[in-house]
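explain this chain.
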Amino acid sequence: SDDISLGMKDYETNISDNLYKLNVKDIGFSSSGNSFFAKNIMLNPNMERADYFAMKKKESVLSYTKVEKIIGSGVNIIELFKARNILAQKFDIYNLQFQSYKNKQYPIDSVLKETHPLEYINKMKRTVKIDTIDIHNAYISAEILGKNAKETGFIDFTKVNAKITSLDNDLKSVTKDQETKIKASGYLIDKSLITASMHIPIASKNKEYVYGGSLDTFDVKDLNPYLENLFFVSIKDGIVNNINFTINLNEDYAMGKLNMDY
């Protein structure tokens, strides 16, 4: 056949040791155009926050994800069905909403290290090779319950657009100088433009990477919903005209520069 198409509705499965439930309203494939689509995707915890942290008994993070649609082009459908490998030229992700919640009222794991940006991709048992991922109009928020706090600190980023290139976890085939690159822009608290970029050497043994960015003018009092509940401090007045930063880091250290015009 010149074209084999498959569609499913109301797909549902549990992942991450049944911690999260994935729901997809519509999902489909077409072999003629090597295309893929998924609509109305939700990935949320299977249990309430209080129950999860009481079970975990350590500082942890829960996340809540919703996506309006994902469109894939140049997708190797045969590899996807045969070995569940994700090989594609491009994915477009529209109206992603990602919300994270951290409870710091439990002890932190003393051996825990900062997660490398590609850690989850590299640990996957299937091959991932995607030339380009474009993220359109995303919303990202972080909610943190601090030690001894009764209410959470909150911060968010709106109208986020990003491009990720050369995402590859096949470490046997990548070249020495091959990098995953991320460029993004959005608005801090829906007010101040923030831009950022990240360069991540894929085959690095020390897991080093570089990121930097800039932030336009903003009223620092706008950070109070985050600072007051998390650090018990409040800013009365102040304007930051701009911030520029660059940071080099690996799994053992981080060094960088920050310039702020206040």
Observations:
- Helices lie at 49-56, 77-83, 119-123, 224-231.
- The first helix runs from residue 49 to 56.
